[in-house]
Amino acid sequence: MRLLHFVPSVDPHGGGPIEGVRRLRDALAAIGHPGDILCLDSPDADFVTGFPGQVTALGPSSRSYFYNDRVVAWLEAHAAEYDAVIVNGLWQYTGLATWRALGRSATPYFVYTHGMLDPWFKRRYPLKHLKKWLYWPWAEYRVLRDAAAVIFTCEEERLLARQSFWLYRAREVVGSYGTSPPPTNARALAAAFTAAFPEVQGKRPLLYLGRIHEKKGGDLLIEAFGQVLGDAPDLHLVMAGPGDDDIVNPLKRRAEELGIAPRITWTGMLSGDLKWGAFYACDVFCLPSHQENFGIAVVEALACGKPVLISDKVNIWREIEQDGAGLVGPDTLAGTVQTLRRWLSLPRADVAAMRIAALRCFQARFQIGQVAETLVRIISDHSPGASHLGPLERASNQPRNAA
User: Fold this and answer.
1) pTM for this one?
2) How far apart are CA 395 and CA 286, in angstroms?
3) Does residue 286 contact residue 206 with C-beta atoms inside 8 Å?
4) Integer Cα distance of 5 and 39 in angstroms
5) Which of 12, 213, 289, 367 is the one with CA 20 to 30 A from 243?
């Protein structure tokens, strides 16, 4: 098959989804299913020109919604070149444009929601949710209803997605998600990271790596870190990732107030060898998130043999707990403190066993090659012409622009 991966942006500062898309595209190509990436960025953006592989950028587009009046015509002209279009994410023009363009096309489309139907957003941003309701019946509801399949990365995401809007209909499929195995020169990479950030040398680094956003629980991690330092004076917190100043600066001020600022390193965004070096150099990975659909960084930590300390709002927490690959607690200050103290109290033999379990968890569940094979099966099973399609699936092959 030839596939088109449609994303609003390939900017890595946007967080984990684009990294997952890139890894998935490469893994699919490796098993004989090449694909291109379509985005709505400006074609002269540095992150577009430097992006590996074929990228078609149709921007510039509107800043928030990524509206672009060229994309529907482009999809109509090029859809026949692809066996399927994979839409990544909701609440941008990518989904509606695909629905409009492919409604009478033989090319099916599939949607990864990437956690964007999690009811946490409804509770946290009620006014934004009201605005989404005004938009929902005319756009995203139809995008999901008429997709050949809506792919959820785990069972938890599928169940949560049903709670945001009562008007909801989708052909739900639980697939999986993941990443590629990391580089294996762990010592050299860890040494390069500590050379770049010498304050972590000889310490036990706790690593947060990802976009710094209020939903990620960075405030909980800093507060909890301050409370457990007395139990382990060799701890050092590494906060790695991009973030807006209005989110990052209050966290830094709070660290100053707590008197722990010298024990925290803010690296900004890490990529390439420095990113992998941070994983290999850390003692444990921490993410007390209030909402996390999947968490590519969580899986990257597992791939490096690093246990993870996560909240039960990270949707793959059940898999982590079942495999003994980390510790799980509530997304509260008390829960974060308790999780850190549980980690610090583990005997060395239990820590060593958890590191082995972390790597095994990645190998069994989250290797991108397995994810690619699962996606191929989903597309094959839900594409027009599949012999086993039932009435509902057959209906999805009819023109999809009707209300």
Assistant:
1) 0.84
2) 45
3) yes
4) 9
5) 367
